[in-house]
User: Fold this.
Amino acid sequence: MELVFLPPYSPDLNPQEQIWDELRERFFSSRLFKSLQAVIETAAGGLQQLESMPALIKSLSHRNWILNAF
Assistant:
């Protein structure tokens, strides 16, 4: 096993960044939260909504190199 460190921003190597960007843009943009609990609830609700859109998740995170690695 060899550890390889990714650059700070590498969306092609780390596709989960695309999902977090989508979550941030759809559910957190231009909002002010009154508490940490409100942030947690918004994140949970946003992730549940994204979970119900598998085609969107696939389009955001699909990388041929990942499929070919297995």
